[in-house]
Design a protein that fits this description.
- By secondary structure, the chain is an alpha+beta fold.
- Helix content is 35%, strand content 20%.
- It contains 12 helices and 13 strands.
- The strands form 3 sheets. A 6-stranded antiparallel sheet has the order 3-2-1-6-5-4. The chain has a 5-stranded mixed sheet with strand order 8-9-7-12-13, sandwiched between helices.
Length: 359
């Protein structure tokens, strides 16, 4: 059974204004019904564009991408929780001035007090040979995620090549961006190191025990005509470390405190990382109890200062335990054991405290 199809060629061509189409084979339209094509729907936009259903997995990925891309994040939260403690050097620049350095960047640039160097021209921290390179490539870095190696110059003149990526900060009043450098220690860090702590670079507890033994041996075997010096072993535990852990500041606090102890105490002292407790200090060559008392007071004053970042000072609650050779400790083993016992007693007290081991 054949179906007659009545066509208005003038309408198909677009009306009288347009020229009729040439060499158009209209015989195909006779079989339109057999192929499920409704001729009256040919000029409807809805019918012309088929609605394609996305696979469920593709829909899920699309939703996840849109979710995190549309989030409005508080930059100060990112700074406090991520940037401050990052092992990558991070610098924020606004209108060509450096307005923020994280702890890693401060160490690299030999900056002790970020406040005093804030608002300085950023190029003053860049080697002059790379000034043109940075200014000409910052656009590509911001728009195309391009990486660029820039040589930073510290306040002491040390040159450190760093591969940076840039993040643009939308700001209607200023041209601002964040420079994020590559991980400085990752490539140089040994796969396994049983003598030094990976986080701080300090001697670990096993090396510390060996140094305590050597210090005691030195006193035991020295010429009997020479006076015997005192040796103190001091253990330190940061009791409120859990509060820093919740803020993702634990590593920052440990690294900053390690740096403070090493730079502030005498050079012949050994500052080490502990296993159960955070730090151990070996104080050899103390001539008298008076000298020991001065050194302990100096240590407690350092701990009382807390640790500071670019914005605030974090107070520490610490327990400190100490023992002294040759009295009451008569050996290196006893010296460490008694310091641990004193540290445990200190932890039982409220707030920051110091306990010297007594017989």
């Amino acid at each position: 059974m054949s179906t007659e199809v009545s066509l208005d060629i003038q309408n198909l061509d677009g009306g009288e204004i347009l020229s009729p189409a040439a060499n158009v084979d209209l015989s195909l339209l006779k079989d339109a019904k057999r192929y499920g094509v409704v001729i009256n729907d040919l000029e409807k936009i809805d019918a012309a564009i088929p609605q394609v259903e996305l696979p469920k997995q593709q829909k899920k990925k699309q939703k996840e991408r849109l979710f995190w891309q549309d989030l409005d994040v508080n930059l100060s939260d990112i700074i406090n929780l991520v940037m401050d403690s990052s092992e990558r050097p991070i610098i924020m620049v606004s209108d060509d001035k450096a307005v923020y350095f994280n702890f890693t960047a401060m160490q690299m640039l030999d900056i002790k007090d970020a406040k005093s160097w804030r608002e300085e021209p950023f190029l003053s921290f860049v080697d002059k040979q790379d000034w043109n390179l940075l200014t000409s490539s910052i656009g590509e870095m911001l728009t195309s995620a391009q990486k660029q190696k820039i040589r930073l110059r510290s306040l002491k003149g040390k040159i450190s090549p760093v591969e940076f990526q840039a993040i643009y900060l939308p700001d209607t009043k200023h041209f601002s961006f964040i420079l994020v450098g590559n991980h400085q220690n990752k490539s140089n860090k040994p796969f396994f190191n049983n003598l030094y702590d990976d986080l701080t670079g300090l001697p670990n507890f096993f090396l510390f025990e060996d140094r305590v033994q050597m210090a005691v041996n030195n006193e035991n075997y020295k010429d009997s005509r020479l006076p015997r010096d005192l040796i103190a072993v001091v253990g330190i535990n940061v009791d409120n470390i859990e509060s820093f852990r919740k803020l993702h500041l634990e590593e920052f606090v440990i690294k900053k405190l390690a740096n403070t102890l090493v730079l502030s105490l005498k050079k012949n002292y050994t500052v080490a990382r502990g296993l159960k407790y955070h730090f151990w200090i070996l104080m050899p060559d103390l001539m008298s109890g008076y000298d020991l008392d001065l050194e302990i007071k100096k240590l407690m004053a350092l701990l009382k200062e807390g640790v500071s970042d670019n914005f605030t000072t974090h107070d520490l609650t610490v327990s400190v335990g100490a023992s002294v050779f040759p009295n009451p400790a008569r050996s290196a083993k006893k010296l460490i054991e008694q310091a641990i016992e004193a540290l445990k007693q200190s932890q039982e007290q409220e707030g920051s405290s110091l306990v010297m081991f007594q017989k």
